[in-house]
Amino acid sequence: MAVKTQVDEVWSDLDHRLIQDAQGNLKKVINVESVMVSIDNILRTYRGERVMLPEFASALKSLTFESMTKPLLDFLSRDIKETIERWDDRVLVSQVRFLAEPDYSSITLEISFVIKGYSKIFVHEMPVRGEV
Questions:
Q1: Which of 122, 113, 115, 110 is nearest to 94 (CA)?
Q2: Fewest CB atoms within 10 Å of the CB: 22, 36, 54, 119?
Q3: Nearest Cα to 77, choosing from 89, 100, 94?
């Protein structure tokens, strides 16, 4: 079986910013952008926030104001990887990094992942501040 390098137009989702397109419809994102919207949704949801899926989400949002110690970052890295792979079966997470931004009292979460069946590694960056 050959591994693809380009993602065909397969998936679509609403743009999480709820922007309208030229026709006045909510803008959609496709393929890799759709996967990144899914990752954002998973990470920006509190556990218990989804009524029919109370276990949906990662621990990230509930730990936003905790001190960023090595054990906490290790726990979050594992939790983020496991949670994304559990709730989005298109994705295999290869690396989770935390990039400190002390001037802004925040971090940027950098997630490297592959979409199953494709060889390209994608990187998704997500700023994490108090308003996650």
A1: 113
A2: 22
A3: 94
Alpha carbons within 13 A on the beta-carbon side of 56? 15
Q: What b/e string do you get for 18-45 counting C-beta neighbours within 10 Å, with b at 16 or more?
A: eeeeeeeeeeebebbbbbbbbbebbbbb
**Are the C-beta atoms of 130 and 64 separated by less than 8 Å?**
yes
Q: What is the pLDDT of residues 78-119, one digit of tens each?
A: 999 999 999 999 899 999 999 887 666 678 899 999 988 888
Please, are residues 7 and 118 in contact by the beta-carbon 8 Å criterion? yes
pTM for the complete prediction? 0.77
Domains and CATH numbers, the chain: 12-128 (3.10.450.40)
